[in-house]
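Anyone? Bumping this.
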Amino acid sequence: NAGVMQNPRHLVRRRGQEARLRCSPMKGHSHVYWYRQLPEEGLKFMVYLQKENIIDESGMPKERFSAEFPKEGPSILRIQQVVRGDSAAYFCASSPLAGSYEQYFGPGTRLTVT
Amino acid sequence: KQEVTQIPAALSVPEGENLVLNCSFTDSAIYNLQWFRQDPGKGLTSLLLIQSSQREQTSGRLNASLDKSSGRSTLYIAASQPGDSATYLCAVPGPYGGSQGNLIFGKGTKLSVKP
């Protein structure tokens, strides 16, 4: 059973470009969470999705950021018109059920905005 | 608002020592607490998950305890090894923890074990 997969592992974008980060949850997991880790800061929750539904996006910036988890395929975190402050490590986690169940994390995507 | 604090922020010990990492949280109404390990430039590895009904969990040289009433958890590492060097994070479910499950993390304790 493969773990949570994220790609790309490293992504470099120029200011104003779009960044697309992908996350494939563990087999059998239908709950996906995205977190962001800014330099020298802790991980912060961004968004929680189930298949075809956004359950909680209270941690998402109001503009330029969006996320989806389609019926088929990976979850996508999309950042439009990136700025230098978006440079961070973005982690995806999955779990079989929400709430009291263990979350399994992917290796992360490190986004650098030049 | 739930806040998670980890003390110390960094710790350096000689190989072989037993050590304790601390985690505190402000809202004791949690469903569980999870300890993670993060290596530089890498993702998170789950070490131990303690349900709210449990007092402790053990895995190998690791032992995690949970005291909900005082809002504290400790991670005990026995006979530390250089390979234990990493940042250790604790996390609890955020608001609506039973149905939402997003985690709130502490900033971590950076552990260095010297050979």
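Late reply, but here is one note on the structure posted above: Chain A touches chain B at residues 31, 33, 35, 41-45, 48, 55-56, 59, 91, 93, 95, 98-108, 110 (CB under 8 Å).
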